[in-house]
Amino acid sequence: MNLEVVKKTDLKKNVYLQLSLILLAGFVLRIFLSTLITYEPDFGAWQGWGRALSNDGFSQFYDKNWCDYMPGYLYILWILNEFHMAMPWLSVHILFKLPANLSDLGISILIFVALRPIASTRIAMISSLVYFFNPASLSNSTFWGQVDSVHAFPMLFSIILSLRKRFVLSGLFAALAFMIKPQSIVLFPIIGFIAIDPFFRSTERWNINNFIPSAKIIITIIVTCTIITLPFIWDKIDSFFYIFTGPIELIKERFDTAYEQYKYASLNAFNFWGAFAMWKSDELLFLMLSYKSWGTIIFGTFYTLIFVSLFKFNLLRKDKENKEFTYLIFQAVTLILFALFLFVTRAHERHVLPSIVFFTLIMFRSWIFPYLYAIVSGVYVCNMIYSYIQLTTEYSGVPDEIEKVLIPSMFVLYLIAFALMFLDYLNRILKQKDSLNS
Questions:
Q1: What single DSSP character describes residue 34?
Q2: Rounded distance, CA 131 to CA 152, Å?
Q3: What does residue 216 show for φ and ψ, rounded to 5 degrees?
Q4: CB neighbours (10 Å) of residue 169?
Q5: Angle of helix 148-163 versus helix 167-180 axis, rounded to 10
Q6: Packing angle between helix 167-180 and helix 212-233, nearest 10 degrees?
Q7: Residues 6 or more apart from 25 whose CB is under 8 A from it?
């Protein structure tokens, strides 16, 4: 065997070993830190839901218990409660934070896997470790004990799988993400866009084979959502057709319950609405439209610009395996999730974490991105600390005079990061057009 090939193989093994050992050490550290800080009201709810699922069963759960969660994460809570009953000596803080910590570990591995084919091993490794040891992910999963990383993991996996043409698995993980948090639906058009790519690449566009990837994703999402939902409606099934209509009814009911619970412009989030309308009703009017409507319009505008630009780039590109296209998908998803947090009402402080996950993938795309990444992560941690203080002190912890300066300032930092990333995205699309015209 060629000596150079041997050296490269050994180097690759060393990188994998180093990454594995560092991530393992970091995971052990997270387990230790899990016992230190927790937001107990949320934690109490999750433990209560886990017990209720064991005691009442899945089909009676929503009838007997108040819950604003989709069915997806409830399976995890049920499993955690079963472990807790089997091992009562194990700290509940470690146990119930385990899904989030494991998800962050999985996200870090996926970041390395996603970047390895399109970036250097060094960049892939650094990016993976940056996310895992990022105070933003630590504050959400290890300290607060929230589950946004559990939601972000299948979102990231679904996008990666779709880019690698694994459309059945992509649909599976997209459905899992949706059944944990319905906000995931904003990524469905991106996944569908990737799946329909053969239509634009083929010389015979209307060939049935060009639409098979899209069909795989749609069927997989429908089947997966149905299977996840059925145990929760099993006692109500009184006809064959209810097997298909029941899951839709339950999903709509759960979505309405979650979305209609907090009709506020911002729930401790340092976003556009938090800057001047924190905990104010999003039904308040401005220029004859409610805050909620304005938020939807602003987000929809950015979404359209991002999606149309990506569509235009795809029409212009010649290379079927263009790594620039892969990077732009990651950047588009980052921007969409960021815009969702910044401009749509009823956002919580922690909802920007999935955007940080995807931002990690493009962190080294521009000289300014590492600085923006640090700013976004820092503002996120500040937001988590602010929210924790407010919630645990009955909103007497942060003085009003500090709030009036702190929240708008933090939003401006978020907005600067979003604007520069958005402009960079549009600039890359325009460069592709110019390169073809020259």
A1: T
A2: 13
A3: -60, -45
A4: 17
A5: 160
A6: 40
A7: none
Q: Per-residue pLDDT for 228 more than 90?
A: yes
Cβ count near 297 (within 10 Å): 11
First-to-last alpha carbon distance for the chain, in angstroms, is: 45
- State yes or no: pLDDT of 346 exceeds 70: yes
Q: What angle do CA 205, 209, 212 make, to 5 degrees?
A: 115
Q: How far from 165 is each of 39, 169, 170, 210, 404, CA to CA, in Å?
A: 40, 9, 8, 12, 48
Quick check: 130 and 26 in contact, CB under 8 A?
no
3-class secondary-structure state, position 438: coil
pTM tops 0.70, yes or no: yes
Q: Are 195 and 217 in contact (CB under 8 A)?
A: yes
Tokens 């999402």 belong to which residue?
221
| Residue 266 Rama label (left phi>0; alpha psi -120 to 50; beta) | beta
The alpha helices in 317-399, defined as continuous H runs, are 323-343, 353-361, 369-392
Residue 306 backbone phi and psi in degrees, to 5: -65, -45
Q: Would you state the structure tokens that stand for residue 268, as one six-digit string?
A: 């401790």
- Report pLDDT digits (tens) over 108-126: 999 999 999 999 999 999 9
10's tokens: 């050994």
pLDDT of residue 166: 94
347 beta partners: 266
Measure the CA–CA gap between 32 and 181, rounded to whole angstroms.
28
